[in-house]
Design goal:
This protein is mainly beta and about 100 residues long. The protein is built from 1 helix and 7 strands; from the N terminus they run H-E-E-E-E-E-E-E. It has a 4-stranded mixed beta sheet, with no helix packed on it. A 3-stranded antiparallel beta sheet has the order 5-6-7, with no helix packed on it.
């Protein structure tokens, strides 16, 4: 299923908030996306096997996305921070269109 499965959102979102989760990692929607809702960074990485265009740029909480290109995310973490970078195939060369860091 693509998008927000209602049963998952209803079950999971309250638990993420209750336990102070900073980041939720997922895949499958064939894009790279960073969504921020209620203090949680939702990172979707699913652009490794299929290109998809037509991301809803007005999606509630959407911070950044990369669609229409193959890609993946890298994550660097230490005791106080998590740095995430989108990496996409831009005409045969690696491009890094978006990076963000969560610090604690």
């Amino acid at each position: 299923e693509h998008g927000d499965p209602p049963a998952l959102v209803q079950s999971l979102a309250p638990l993420l908030a209750q336990y102070g989760v900073d980041v939720y990692f997922s895949g499958h929607d064939h894009v790279l996306q960073h969504i921020s809702k209620d203090g949680v960074a939702y990172l979707g990485s699913g652009a490794g096997a299929r290109e998809h265009s037509g991301m809803n740029a007005s999606y509630d909480g959407l911070v950044a996305y990369a669609d229409g290109k193959f890609g993946f995310m890298t994550h660097e973490l230490d005791a106080t921070s998590l740095k995430t970078t989108f990496v996409v195939n831009d005409k045969g060369a690696a491009s890094k269109p978006y990076t963000f860091t969560i610090s604690k």
